[in-house]
Amino acid sequence: MVFGGKEDDIHITLKGKPLEEVKVFRYLEVSIDNRLCFTDHLTELTSRLSALCGALRRNLNGSIGRELRCTIYFALGQTIISYGSLVWGLAS
What we know:
The protein is 47% helix and 13% strand. With 92 residues, the chain is of the alpha+beta class.
């Protein structure tokens, strides 16, 4: 992955074979794109958090109180949000 520049500007080879250029690369569950804007990663985080909220609403809505549901959400949701935030959280 080459960051910035035009697509045809740089050709990288390894042992004489050209390396494939990709727009988005996943490394340790963080999606990194060639512009370092992390849009794909944030879209995936939003989807995962939405799924978590839906699962909590469907499975725990009537059986436990709101305070315990919030505790479970923050325990699970905070780990989803904070994982890799040192990398993507500082990008502008």
